[in-house]
Design a protein that fits this description.
Layout lengths: L2 H14 L7 H13 L22 E2 L6 E2 L12 E5 L23 E5 L8 E5 L14 E10 L12 E7 L1 E5 L4 E3 L8 E9 L5 E6 L8 E10 L6 E7 L9 E8 L7 E6 L3 E3 L3 E5 L2 E8 L5 E9 L6 E2 L3 E4 L4 E2 L2 E2 L5 E6 L14 E2 L5 E10 L24 E2 L11 E5 L2 H4 L16 E5 L9 E8 L5 E10 L7 E6 L2 E7 L8 E8 L5 E8 L8 E11 L3 E12 L12 E2 L17 E4 L8 E7 L8 E5 L1 E2 L12 E2 L17 E4 L8 E7 L8 E5 L1 E2 L12 E2 L17 E4 L8 E7 L8 E5 L1 E2 L3 E8 L2 E8 L5 E6 L2 E4 L5 E3 L4 E9 L2 E9 L12 E2 L17 E7 L5 E6 L18 E9 L5 E7 L4
Helix pairs in contact: 1-2
Length: 922
């Protein structure tokens, strides 16, 4: 058992002493659960012999200050003396108390009579040669701890209690920073001291010394020194056995947790079937895809997916079939590399080659053939976890100490997972692993303890009862003297013993067969029965444990023998020469399938042969089809038409008296070839007739330029640019934009053409009124983008593009606008210029140009304004009005451009009515 597991087991048992209801069976159950898990459930203790169960192995002391004493003890000690034993009392009967060690209460601990010479002498230095703990990973955080207790009857206070200082070399970030701890008084139980540090070197020195030099008290015991790396994450290892036979459900899956928080609470299997287990063993499994998970004490889960249990290949035989009497057939089998044997019931004298994979037989009656093969062994996968040590120090347990670096002096009863024995311990030969020479193996510095009963390797796997298994391993010596002698036991019983080679680096394989009997588990243990300290060093690799069971394969196929049937068919009537002859039926009237030869020929009378499909028990038969001559229908030609013109139906009787039908349907849009198919029963051939359909031409004309209203307009041409003649409608109109339609004359394949002549017909009106105190004329055109010219008594007064004119004199005013070269005019006679009396604006143009944007009555005392549309509906009303109306309704919506009727009520004069023009474009 590894030191780590042994430590937890001892602690478990010691703690359980206070529970009266627990018994040995509970401890035993717990022990075997520990055995089932790998040796690195927890981070590996990197200190050799931290529990002192192996005496002084794994550390040194400063020999100047401390001296080792051994049994028998005299009952009196001197300052600086120490011993590795299980009770302080025998060392100093007068002054030491009697206590058990921290681990189990019966094991060893280190007892120290405190020195009085100097406080910097180390009583414990890690490493067999004091070279520290090596193989650490720089940057990782490690935890060092120990348990301590005062053992003197004279210790009373801090002045007499041991003060233990811990020194770390090659480390940083030590916590707690204060590395001094006080040994607890005897009345207090063991006390744990713990530090963490970060490794700055692959080798870290750890040393302990006592700074109290008081000769009174100052005596203590120390036990269970542990150095662990970062916590090991929970993982899961699996192995499996496939089902033994193609249709059996006897596969197994073994799941083993590693790392995480022990104990594991459950293992869960899912997939082709579901189950839970406390041990991780699942049996009676059918073929399929599984996944298995382990849950640890902190409810963390680790899962292994796609564990595929594959049954061995079954025999594959040809399908049962039916043959005709007198025919032969071929049997077939595959799926095994072993010998095949065919038998027949009833006996068949034509089975002359019963060991063939494809024998040909010719049975005279229905016969069942059985083929068997020699036994097969389907399970070639090793059931062991990490049998080649590729996963490192996991999947097994042992009684040896796992050492990353045994130092210069080596360590008996130690092992490592290495690629080179020499790199692990330099006196060893440079032996490499068995697999490739560059991968892992396990190397041992042989045990000298326990008379050869220390376990070198052990693992438990599930097994099927009453089956043979083969366990094999490879061994080599790494030192040539005193080769190891490896004995293998299964469930405590020896299955074989053999010597390692006498020469170094020479791999030798040993194999043993074991029968499971009634067992469902196999605990495989390897011992080195040599316990001499000189030599006795070896390596193991590629351990394997495989099932030897076999499975007999057998399959059957039945050949049914029938008497042949004569197919029957309905005789077809004679057909016309060249007529399509329907395919002859592939199934006879009495249900026989087959094919006809030769191919159908509609030009001559032929006898056809029907051959039944292979496998149908039927004979050939013959059928004759008679061919008669045919007549070709004739028709008169059809005149060409224009596309879209009416097309008379084609005659359904030819000029030579053949009736039939035409395809495709008539189409008056394109030239088409029509096929005439004579009515069934007429020995006539198909004939074809083409009806030409000429496409329509679109007449083309030059466009007509835009004119002003009243300008002369030339007659439109009666012939198009592409030669189409015709007439125009309606008559020409030089005052209004008009669409004209050209209709081609009859007899021409042409379409109607449209032509538009645009007539520009602008108009303008004038509104007059006061804007503030100015009498202003405003031109309101019907078109956009126009120019303006103003005249007084036919004399131009303003030819700028302005739509407003301030009038200073009475007279006749005219405005002339020009829109795209066409003119229009309006005249306004001004007879009064007095703008001091209310002159209501005649127009509003709310376009944000700051001119007439509002209906401005702000110079008058208006008590109310009402606006009506041309239908007499009131759209706007405002009391105490000034200049708020911008062409919107009472609801705030924009009103359309138009002339509106207003009613204005004044505070100091009569009501006034009139029309106002709303135009947002000016």
């Amino acid at each position: 058992m590894s030191a780590t597991i042994f430590f937890h087991l001892k602690t478990f048992v010691r703690n359980k002493k206070t529970k009266k209801t627990h018994n040995f069976i509970e401890y035993l159950t717990f022990f075997f659960l520990l055995i089932l898990v790998s040796s690195n459930l927890y981070s590996q203790n990197l200190i050799t012999n931290g529990d002192f169960e192996r005496g002084t192995v794994g550390f040194i002391t400063n020999s100047v200050a401390y001296k080792l004493i051994t049994p028998p003890f005299s009952g009196s000690t001197a300052p600086g003396e120490y011993a590795i034993t299980n009770d302080p009392k025998p060392l100093n009967t007068a002054n030491f108390i009697s206590i058990g060690d921290h681990t189990s209460g019966t094991g060893n601990m280190m007892i120290i009579d405190g020195t009085t010479t100097t406080g910097n002498r180390r009583f414990w230095i890690a490493g067999s040669t004091g070279d520290g703990i090596c193989g650490l990973k720089v940057g990782d955080t490690y935890t060092f701890s120990y348990w301590i207790k005062s053992i003197s009857t004279t210790v009373t206070n801090n002045d007499t209690q041991a003060r233990i200082v811990t020194f770390f070399g090659g480390a940083s970030d030590i916590s707690p920073v204060a590395t001094t701890s006080i040994a607890p008084l005897p009345a207090i139980d063991w006390q744990k001291v713990e530090y963490t540090f970060k490794a700055t070197s692959a080798c870290v020195n750890i040393e302990l010394f006592n700074t109290n030099l008081n000769p009174v008290g100052n005596d203590f015991a120390i036990d269970d020194l542990v150095l662990t790396g970062p916590p090991v994450l929970l993982s899961i290892n699996t192995s499996f056995t496939n089902p033994l036979c193609p249709n059996s459900s006897d596969g197994t899956i073994t799941a083993t947790g590693a790392g995480g928080s022990f104990p594991y609470t459950k293992y869960t299997l899912s997939g082709a079937s579901d189950a839970t287990s406390l041990t991780g063993l699942f049996t009676g499994l059918a073929p399929g895809i599984y996944e298995v998970s382990v849950t640890d004490n902190s409810n963390t889960e680790s899962t292994k997916t796609r564990i595929i249990l594959t049954p061995p290949s079954d025999l594959i035989v040809g399908q049962s079939k039916t043959i005709c009497s007198g025919n032969s057939t071929e049997l077939s089998v595959s799926g095994s590399t072993a010998t095949y044997t065919w038998t027949a019931i009833p006996a068949d004298i034509t089975l002359t080659n019963p060991n063939s994979t494809n024998p040909t037989v010719k049975p005279t009656q229905t016969t069942t053939y059985t083929v068997t093969s020699n036994p097969i062994s389907p399970n070639s996968i090793s059931l062991l976890t990490n049998g080649d040590f590729s996963e490192g120090n996991t999947g097994f347990i042992n009684d040896y100490a796992y050492i990353l670096n045994p130092g210069n002096g080596g360590t008996q009863r130690a092992y490592g997972i290495v690629t080179s024995a020499k790199n692990w311990f330099s006196p060893f030969a440079d032996c490499r692993d068995k697999t490739t020479g560059t991968e892992n193996m396990i190397v041992f510095d042989g045990s000298t303890a326990n008379s050869g009963n220390d376990k070198a390797w052990e693992q438990t796997v599930p097994v099927v009862p009453n089956q043979n298994y083969t366990f094999s391993y490879w061994v080599q010596s790494v030192v040539s003297v005193n080769p190891a002698k490896i004995e293998v036991t299964v469930n405590g019983a020896s299955i074989g013993i053999a010597n390692a080679p006498s020469s170094t680096c020479n791999w030798v394989q040993y194999s043993y067969i074991w029968n499971s009997g009634n067992s469902t588990n196999a605990t495989i243990t390897m011992y080195d029965r040599v316990f001499i300290s000189n030599g006795n060093d070896f390596a193991l690799d590629d351990l394997s444990f495989k099932i030897n069971s076999t499975c007999n394969l057998s399959k059957q196929v039945t050949i049914t023998v029938d008497q042949p049937i004569t197919p029957s068919f309905t005789q077809p009537s004679p057909v016309c020469l060249g007529t399509i002859i329907p395919a002859l039926p592939l199934t006879s009237t009495n249900g026989i399938n087959g094919t006809w030869t030769p191919d159908i020929d509609n030009t001559k009378t032929i006898e056809y042969t029907f051959t039944p499909t292979l496998g149908i028990c039927a004979s050939n038969t013959k059928l004759t089809i008679s061919i008669t001559s045919s007549i070709t229908p004739t028709f008169n030609a059809v005149n060409a038409i224009c596309a879209g013109a009416s097309l008379a139906a084609l005659p359904i009787t030819s000029t030579n008296g053949i009736t039939g039908a035409w395809l495709p349907p008539l189409d008056n849009t394109k030239t088409t070839e029509y096929t005439f198919t004579p009515t069934s029963g007429n020995c006539s051939t198909e004939t074809k007739l083409t009806v030409d359909v000429n496409p329509n031409i679109t007449p083309t004309f030059n466009p007509i330029a835009e004119i002003c209203s009243g300008d002369a307009l030339s007659p439109l041409p009666t012939s198009s640019l592409n030669g189409i003649s015709g007439t125009w409608l309606p008559a020409l109109n030089n005052t209004l934009t008009t669409d004209y339609k050209f209709t081609p004359s009859l007899g021409q394949c042409a379409t109607i053409k449209d032509l538009t002549i645009t007539v520009n017909n602008p108009s303008v009106s004038i509104t007059a009124g006061c804007i503030t105190t100015n009498y202003t004329l405003e031109a309101i055109p019907t078109e956009n983008n126009v120019t303006y010219s103003w005249y007084k008594d036919n004399v131009i007064v303003n030819n700028q593009s302005a739509n407003k004119l301030v009038v200073k004199d009475l007279g006749s005013y005219k405005v002339v606008i020009n829109s795209d070269g066409c003119n229009a005019e309006a005249i306004e006679n001004v007879t009064v210029l007095n703008c001091n009396t209310p002159i209501i604006p005649k127009g509003v143009s709310p376009n944000n140009d700051n001119l007439n944007d509002t209906f401005d009555l702000s110079d008058f005392n208006v008590s109310k304004l009402e606006i009506f549309n041309r239908y007499g509906i009131k759209v706007y009303s405002k009391s105490n009005y000034t200049n708020e109306w911008t062409g919107t309704s009472d609801a705030g919506q924009e009103l359309p451009d138009a002339t509106y009727y207003y009613v204005v009520e004044f505070e100091d004069r009569d009501t006034k009515t009139g029309w106002v023009y709303l135009n947002r474009q000016n």
